[in-house]
Every structure is written in structure tokens, then in C-alpha cells.
Design brief:
heterodimer; A: alpha/beta; Rossmann fold; six-stranded mixed β-sheet; four-stranded antiparallel β-sheet; 6 helices; 29% helix; globular; B: mainly alpha; MetI-like fold; two-stranded parallel ribbon; 2 strands; 75% helix
Chain lengths: 217, 520
């Protein structure tokens, strides 16, 4: 399988010891799901933000589909990387209804209506299309966030603790549904979580961030 | 920046004998009085603005719907007009003393009310005309707070009063500081009210030096000291704001629930909200009406309509322009995270604190330079004495208002919204108009209201920079009042107040309907 993401000799720090990423190298194969686990503030989210182009590395390189996207002196903007991002607080646009949130990234496409309908159906939120984010539940919001991220057909899906704020039942339902969709669509996924069971359930590989070392299982 | 730099460069000019006189005899008075004034006004506006904003956003009480917009009414009254009417009301021969005298059979020499022509009178005048700045910003901030936070506070044993003091106020601290800073800058740069009350502050000192000693350089040197003081305040404000960056707008937002209260509490809340409106709006209106009726003023004549049109045109155009500039600068700071723009932005706020006349001098000197050296192909002066100078001055003076409104708005938009939008290929102006602009609609209209009402009231800069024979309502009021022709002054003064009311009315409707009720 081809490598879709390659990170080599990555360094990053905000100036405090705990958030430091030191000499991290890693690659993700096409269709693979990798999880990053570790304590809070250890740099998991920072790594995801570097992959997304929202943060600059101090040293090292990030390549997506063999193309250099981040290095010390070069940053390809996030909007040019063809990625999907789902975060814990969902970050749905509060002034747009569910349908417009999902359609946001494909507004320029002719088939946007049919595609939006397809993804609303896929994530079981079609009947909520006209609702605003504050009018739906947390689980429904997360479904909308997944639909919005996947509709653009991203090369890599970045997940930053997307299930953390959900209750156990909702979480396990969404786990089953989303993993099925990821596998059916052959998605390459990087999942940041502090839940080891969640990481084991989803992942082909687990990377554990510790204070002084990184363990790849 | 250029007019401000012109003023600051005066620090490097020679210091005259006048400066020595000021330094030895009156500078301490200027500093002490300015300090007492700003401290008193800041304390009062924080109390009035935050308490009234909290009450109208949280409780159902007698007259709540009126107070939501009614509390902004004093914005329509410039401090100098309130100062004129206060002396008309409370002086020993004032209207209220006359009424009290006839009721209580007082001697002509006896006065029921204490003398208000002092720094404490000035504190009252500024507090009751300027508290709406804090009220408006606090109200927007309280509306954007999610009720879950307060519900959690209640479960942790906090009473309603403690929720306000320990949760609501600390969370809106950036907005509170922003609003109070605006009030402090407005207080420090005012001339009309402190001059009327004979309080020696920096601004009266600057004016006396200019018009009394005819020493413009020393006046500008005094103004520079004031600017340095303001810059110091701004730096403190910035650093405290940086340490208290709160993001509350997210998809999980749950609007506040309005609570019902007992009839005693309802009456108490009514009184708390009514007193500021009564002192800052109803009393001066009654006094102006009293003047108009006594002198049988003729309101609607051609000259009056012409100056009203000039005022509306100038205020609307300047407000829209200033708001767009503030929006673009704040967007650039957020989007590009440019350290250069971040570093320059606080300096742009200083314009608000520059006394109007001093700013006018800076602009005149700058425009004369441009006319003589850059636009010298035109015959005579092209930009000097034109309407550009006025708009330029208004934008410089009002930028802090527009900027603080946008800053407070941006602080409440979570960075994850930007991240998600950028991943979804929304960048630059697309991000601004599809995500930020709809979420900042309240900030946009608040900014337009604040700037427009500021422009309508602005007196000294307009007086100096206006094109020949071009009058606005403020200039007209000043000319009539300075000639003790209150019969004519009452008409433009009333118009200033009425024009100030129109944007207040529409803005309040928009604020009420803003955010979650709104669609794309």
C-alpha cells in the first residue's frame, strides 16, 4: 500500500517542556487508521494541527501523497491540503443550519445538493437538515461534523477526540457506525484520543506519546 | 498615525517659559484632577453598566423591554449638553432650586442642591452620559454567555448575586475592560463639560495654553503627555486582556433563560434601571424643553434642515468607513496572525484619546504639507479645509470604538470554527464574509451606532476642520450656546439627541434579534 502521510524528524515546542514534540517520525498508509494516545498537553493535538497546516513545525517535514506540505521554511495552507477535520467541540458554524454546514466545503460543486443529501442520509441526520446546531443533540452535532468533513472526499481524515464529549451508549453507537463508514470508503484516518479502548477498536496502529518517548504499537 | 506623530514630535521641540510656568504651578492639578475624574467615572460606569446589563439580560421585571433599549438613551446626550443642563437645573438660580424654593419656602440665597461645578459634578455628568458604552458591550457579552455555566454555578452552591460577581463578571472582564477604557479615553479627551465646571484637567490645560497663552507648541507638549499616559493604560489593558481570553460561542451554546422575580424585586430592578435614564436623559431633555418653551423656539427652518443633513451625511459615511477599516484590521490580525499589524493596532486606538482640537491641528499641519508638496499641481488647497479632513479626524477619533467592539466580538468566536472553515477550503475574504461577518453582525451594528453617535456629538474637531460655511448640529449648538442664545441652541441640541436616538432604536432591535434567532 502507498504511503499517504509521511512525517520525518519533527520537532515542535510552545516553549514549555510538556508540549514538546521531539524528533517524531511516522508514516500512514492509504486506508490505514492510526491512533495517537497519551496524557493531556503532551502534544497530540499539536501534531494533528501540524499535519493540518494550522501549526508550523520547528524542524522536520510533513508530506502528504509524497508532496511536501510542511517544513521549517514552508507551509502549504490548510485549505490546499485536502484534509478533513473533526474536533471535540464539533465547531459547527452556529449561524448555518445542518444542511448548509454540511454543504459548506462543496458550495462550488454542481452536484452539491445531491451529495449533501447523500451524506446527510449516510450519517442519519437528513431529517435535521433545517435545524440549527443549537437545536440538535451533541450526538447529532457530531454526526453533522463527520458528514461535513467527509463530503469533501479528503485524502486524510483528522479526528481530535471527536467522541470525548459523548455518553457511553452514544459513543459506542457512533464508534460502530463511523468505523464501518471509514472502512467502506477506505479512508486514511489519524485519530487523537486519550481513550485506549477507543484507540484499540479503531486502529491498525497505535502511537503512544509519553513524556520522554514515543511508542508505536 | 501621522497627526498623532506630529503631536508627539512636539516633545522634541524647545520648551518655552510657559512650559516652566505650567510645570511649577498647575501640572500637578491637571494630573490629580484627571486621575480623580477617570477613577470616579470608571468606577461608576462599571457599576451602572454591568449591573443594568445583567438585570435586563437575566430577569423579567417591570419595563424590561423598554429598558433593553432605554438604557442606551443617554448615549444621545453629549457630556457638554448634560453639563449645560445640570447647571441650568442645580445652580442656585437653576430650575430645580426655583421649584424647591417655592415648595419649601426657601430664601433666594439658599440652595437645596450642593454645588455641582466641581470634579464630583463632572464625574456624575460623564458617568451618566457614558455608562451606555459599558452597558452595550456587557449586554452583548452576557447574551453570548451560555446558560450551562451559570446552571453549574448554581449546583455548586452560588446564589444569584454570587453568580453575577464570581462567574458573569469575570467571564466578561475583557468586554468590561474594553468598555471602561473607551469611557476613560472619552473622559480624558473631553473639553466642554470640564471647562463648564471649571475643573483643571489636561484638556482644559491644553486649551488654556493654546487660547490663553497662544502657545501651540506647549499645548501640543501637554497633549503628548496625555497621549503617553493613554498609551500606558492601553498596554496594561492589552496585557490583562491577553491573560483572560475566553471563548464562549460554540455550537453548544445555550441561550440564557430569563427568570421571573417577585413584585418587590421587580420594582427594585425597575428603579435601578430607571435612575440612570432619568439622570442621563430625561432630566436634560426636560430642561431643554423648558428652555424651548420659555423662549418659544422656532425649530423647523431651512438652516436647521441643512445642518441636520450635513450631520447625518458625515456621521453615516464616517461610521461605515471606520467600521469596515476596523473589521479588516481585526480580521487580518486573526487570519494572518501578523505581528506587525498586532503591534500597530493599539497605537491606532490612541486617536480616541487625542483631544479634538489637538487632533485637528495635527491634521491641518499634515494636510497643508500634502497640499504643498504632493498635490501642488492643484490650484490653492485641495485637501486642507475639505470634508476629507473631517472624515479623517472622525475615523482617527472613533477607531478605538469600532476596534474594541470587534475585538470583543472576535474573542467569543472559537478558533476551531476558523480551523474547520480553512480545512473546508474557505480562506481570506471568503472566510470573512461566510463565517466571521454573520457571527459578528452584532459587533458590526454596535460599531456603526457607537461611531455615528460619536460623530454627531463631536464638537472641537468639527469646529476647526469644517469647510468654510459648513455647519453641523454640534457646531451650531456651540455657537448659539457660547453667545448665550439658548433659544436657538435648544433646537440643534434637541436634534442631536433625536438623531442619536434613531440608530439606538434600530440597533437595539437588531441586538435583540441577533445571534441564534438569525439565519444565514
Amino acid at each position: 500500500m502507498k504511503k499517504i502521510l509521511e512525517i520525518s524528524n519533527l520537532f515542535h515546542s510552545y516553549g514549555n517542556e510538556i508540549s514538546t514534540i521531539k524528533d517524531f517520525s511516522f508514516s500512514l498508509k492509504d486506508g490505514e487508521i492510526a491512533s495517537i494516545i497519551g496524557a493531556s498537553g503532551i502534544g497530540k493535538t499539536t501534531l494533528l494541527r501540524i499535519i493540518a497546516g494550522l501549526e508550523e513545525p520547528a524542524e522536520g517535514e510533513v508530506r502528504i501523497k509524497e508532496k511536501l506540505v510542511s517544513s521549517k521554511n514552508f507551509i502549504l495552507p490548510p485549505e490546499k491540503r485536502n484534509l478533513g477535520l473533526v474536533v471535540e467541540d464539533r465547531a459547527l458554524f452556529p449561524h448555518l443550519n445542518v444542511k448548509k454546514n454540511v454543504m459548506f466545503g462543496i458550495n462550488y460543486m454542481e452536484e452539491k445538493e445531491s451529495l449533501t443529501r447523500e451524506f446527510l442520509e449516510l450519517f442519519k441526520v437528513l431529517d435535521l437538515a433545517d435545524k440549527f446546531p443549537h437545536e440538535i443533540s451533541a450526538g447529532q452535532q457530531q454526526r453533522v461534523a463527520f458528514a461535513r468533513a467527509l463530503i469533501t472526499n479528503p485524502d486524510i481524515l483528522l479526528l481530535d477526540e471527536p467522541f470525548a464529549a459523548l455518553d457511553k451508549k452514544l459513543k459506542s453507537d457512533l464508534h460502530v457506525e463511523t468505523k464501518k463508514i471509514f472502512k467502506e470508503k477506505g479512508l486514511s484516518v489519524v485519530l487523537v484520543t486519550h481513550d485506549e479502548d477507543e484507540a484499540e477498536y479503531f486502529s491498525d496502529r497505535i502511537i503512544e506519546f509519553k513524556e520522554d518517548q514515543i511508542i508505536i504499537k | 498615525m501621522s497627526p498623532i506623530l506630529v503631536i508627539l514630535f512636539s516633545l522634541f521641540s524647545d520648551y518655552s517659559e510657559n512650559w516652566e510656568h505650567i510645570y511649577n504651578y498647575v501640572l500637578t492639578d491637571y494630573i490629580v484632577n484627571s486621575f480623580i475624574l477617570v477613577s470616579g467615572v470608571s468606577t461608576l460606569v462599571i457599576i451602572i453598566g454591568s449591573v443594568t446589563a445583567w438585570i435586563v439580560t437575566n430577569y423579567q421585571f417591570l419595563g424590561r423591554r423598554f429598558f433593553e433599549w432605554g438604557l442606551i438613551l443617554p448615549l444621545a446626550i453629549p457630556p457638554y449638553i448634560l453639563a449645560y443642563t445640570f447647571t441650568g437645573l442645580f445652580d442656585s438660580y437653576g430650575t430645580l432650586n426655583e421649584i424647591a424654593g417655592s415648595i419649601f419656602n426657601l430664601q433666594k440665597s439658599e440652595s437645596l442642591f450642593p454645588n455641582i461645578r466641581n470634579v464630583y459634578g463632572a464625574i456624575l455628568v460623564f458617568s451618566f452620559t457614558l455608562y451606555p458604552y459599558v452597558y452595550l458591550i456587557c449586554r452583548t457579552a452576557f447574551l453570548n454567555q451560555s446558560r450551562s455555566m451559570f446552571e453549574i454555578g448554581r449546583t455548586l452552591g452560588l446564589s444569584q448575586k454570587l453568580i453575577f460577581l464570581k462567574l458573569a463578571l469575570p467571564v466578561v472582564r475583557p468586554a468590561l475592560i474594553a468598555g471602561t477604557m473607551i469611557v476613560a479615553m472619552e473622559t480624558l479627551s473631553d473639553f466642554g463639560a470640564v471647562d463648564h465646571f471649571a475643573v483643571s484637567t489636561f484638556t482644559t490645560g491644553i486649551f488654556r495654553t493654546w487660547y490663553g497663552m497662544y502657545d501651540l507648541t506647549t499645548a501640543m507638549q501637554l497633549a503628548s503627555m496625555l497621549l503617553i499616559f493613554i498609551t500606558f493604560c492601553l498596554v496594561i489593558e492589552r496585557s490583562s486582556r491577553k491573560n483572560a481570553s475566553f471563548s464562549t460561542i460554540s455550537s453548544n451554546f445555550k441561550p440564557m433563560q430569563i427568570k421571573k422575580v417577585s413584585s418587590q424585586q421587580s420594582f427594585l430592578f425597575f428603579l435601578i434601571c430607571f435612575v440612570p435614564i432619568f439622570i442621563g436623559f430625561i432630566l436634560p431633555i426636560l430642561e431643554i424643553l423648558n428652555w424651548s418653551l420659555r423662549f418659544n423656539s422656532g425649530f423647523f427652518e431651512k438652516h436647521f434642515f441643512r445642518i441636520s443633513f450635513n450631520t447625518i451625511l458625515l456621521s453615516v459615511f464616517s461610521a461605515i468607513l471606520c467600521t469596515f477599516i476596523a473589521m479588516l484590521i481585526n480580521f487580518s490580525i486573526r487570519y494572518k496572525n501578523s505581528s506587525t499589524i498586532k503591534a500597530i493596532n493599539p497605537f491606532l486606538n490612541i486617536g480616541y484619546a487625542v483631544p479634538g482640537l489637538i487632533l485637528a491641528v495635527g491634521i491641518v499641519q499634515l494636510f497643508v504639507f500634502i497640499d504643498n508638496n504632493v498635490l501642488n499641481s492643484f490650484e490653492g488647497y485641495f485637501v486642507t479645509g475639505s470634508i476629507f479632513g473631517l472624515i479623517f479626524a472622525y475615523i482617527i477619533k472613533s477607531y478605538a470604538l469600532a476596534n474594541s467592539t470587534y475585538e470583543a466580538g472576535y474573542q467569543k468566536i472559537s478558533q476551531t470554527l476558523d480551523d474547520s472553515a480553512r480545512i473546508l477550503k474557505s480562506k481570506g475574504l471568503n472566510l470573512l464574509f461566510r463565517i466571521h461577518f454573520p457571527l459578528l453582525k452584532t459587533s458590526f451594528f454596535t460599531s456603526i451606532l457607537l461611531v455615528a453617535s460619536e460623530v454627531v456629538k463631536e464638537l472641537p474637531a468639527t469646529l476647526i476642520l469644517r469647510p468654510f460655511n459648513f455647519e453641523t448640529l454640534a457646531v451650531s449648538t456651540y455657537i448659539y450656546a457660547s453667545e448665550e442664545r439658548m433659544i436657538e441652541a435648544a433646537a440643534p441640541a434637541t436634534a442631536i439627541i433625536l438623531i442619536g436616538l434613531i440608530p439606538i432604536f434600530f440597533l437595539t432591535k437588531m441586538i435583540r434579534a441577533s445571534r441564534l434567532e438569525g439565519k444565514e
